[in-house]
Each structure stands twice: as C-alpha cells, then as structure tokens.
Design goal:
alpha/beta, Rossmann fold, Helicase, Ruva Protein, domain 3, 2 domains, 7-stranded mixed beta sheet, two-stranded antiparallel ribbon
Length: 260
C-alpha cells in the first residue's frame, strides 16, 4: 500500500526535530489527574509517537487535513474511533470528557492559535493542562506580566484561570518547511479559581473593551460600557489596560457593574 504523506495546510509547519517533540510531550505532567489527552493537528505524528508510549493515557487525535488523517490511520497510532477527522474548533470536548479532566497538546497552526485559546477558555472547567507550541510572539503575549507592551487580552483571560509558563524557544530549522518566525513552547495549568468573584461574562467584556483601545486611559476606553467619564475615585481610571493585573480587572468589573 502506497504511503500517504500530508501536505502543509492551514499555515501548519511540521515539526521534524524528534528531540524537541519528545521534550514537548515530556511537559505533560498529569496536572489535575486527567487520563484523556487530545492532540490538536497531529500532522505526521511527530508528537503522537511519543504520546502513545504512555499507556495510562487515552490519546485522541483531532486532524482536519484528509491526507494527514490517511497517513495517521496507516501508522495505527490510535484506534480509529479516537482519530477524529474534524476541525478542533468544532470538537465537543464536554462530550468527550464526560465530566472528567483532560489535557490538550499540539503544534498550533499560527493563524488559528487565538481561537484555540478561546476554546480552551470556554472549556476551562474540564481542560486541566495544555502544552503547546505557538509563534514566539504569541507565547510572549500569553505569558506577559502587567506593564509589558505585549500584555493583552489573552494574557489577562488565560492568566485568570491558568498558571502559564514559557518553557523554551524553537528555531525555524526544527520544522519542515521552515517558518519565517521562531516558535515557543508554553504550558498552561488550571489554577484553583473555580469562579471569579465577579460576573465572568462582564469580566471578559471589560477586558476586551479595555484593550480594544489600549493607548487610551480606561476613562476613555471604557465609554462603550457606559462608564461615566466623571468618575474620579477609581484607582485605575487614569491607567491604561496594560497596567492592570487580573485582580485589578476583577475589581474593575465589579465597579462597572455598580454604575452601569
């Protein structure tokens, strides 16, 4: 039978450095006691071949590319019922997990990494750990601290519910074909916050609105939320969004609820 080799798709660059692949899989710690691991876009199985060596995990592969699916099926990495030919963004993680924690891992396609992180946030009650490789600037943004120019919406939202860690940088030469930018590996582990002490929907809205005009002070950036410009007693009102911590945004959300 002729072997099928998948093409580059959706901006994906396949990892060819197996030592780095082994390192990435080795970062899965079991945090939260999960047994299921979902690999996002396994491609030619660079990570998969190491994932399946841990027999205590039930590995699921979410792959959208038809040729990649055919290749993975030939390799028999997992039973066919755990090889999901679909877009990860459409995958129902709640049905898969059946209320139990699970982990995510993958070399994320550059242009859809942000939607994947928002899907992670939507499923934060079941995803206890995520290990992934992303574009270096995305990794820096997610792990940035307040006051950093790369600190933004994803920084705040992810750090509200996860401990985030920048692990290491990956050179372009580790991929086929080589991308134009460097990549980085990060780890996200669910923290102890079951619910924020504020309206979480309003919190998400406040963070996004504040950063939509990040060069403006919050007095002006928050006008779309109905915050009166005459307010003077909020400690954050003359600051910019990038200067606020997660805790500050929680307090700000509560204050906005009182006046709106």
């Amino acid at each position: 039978m002729k072997q099928v080799k998948p093409k580059k798709y959706l901006g994906q660059h396949f990892l060819r450095d197996l030592q780095i692949a082994r390192q990435i899989v080795g970062l899965l710690s079991g945090h939260g006691g999960y047994r299921q691991v979902v690999e996002i876009g396994p491609g030619m199985g660079a990570l998969t071949q190491f994932l399946v060596q841990n027999t205590t995990w039930e590995i699921h592969l979410a792959e959208i590319d038809r040729e990649a699916v055919a290749y993975l099926a030939q390799k028999h990495f997992v039973p066919m019922e755990r090889l999901h030919h679909l877009d990860f963004l459409s995958m129902n993680l709640a049905n898969l997990s059946q209320g139990q924690p699970l982990a995510l891992i993958g070399n994320l396609p550059y242009q859809i990494s942000s939607p994947i992180f928002f899907k992670l946030l939507e499923n934060r009650h079941i995803v206890s750990e995520m290990v992934c490789m992303v574009q270096k600037e995305v990794a820096e943004r997610i792990t940035a601290a307040p006051g950093n120019k790369t600190y933004g919406i994803l920084s705040v939202l992810l750090q509200a519910f996860y401990h985030v860690r920048y692990e290491f940088t990956v050179d372009q030469k580790a991929f086929q074909p080589p991308p134009k930018v460097k990549s980085a590996v990060i780890v996200l582990q669910r923290n102890q916050v079951e619910r924020l002490p504020c309206n979480e929907k309003k919190f998400f809205q406040t963070v996004k609105t504040a950063f939509n005009q990040r060069r403006k002070t919050l007095r002006n950036a928050l006008k779309p939320l109905g915050v009166p410009s005459k307010i003077t007693d909020w400690p954050w009102i003359n600051l910019r969004a990038e200067q606020l911590s997660v805790e500050d945004f929680v307090a700000l959300t509560t204050a906005i609820e009182r006046v709106s």
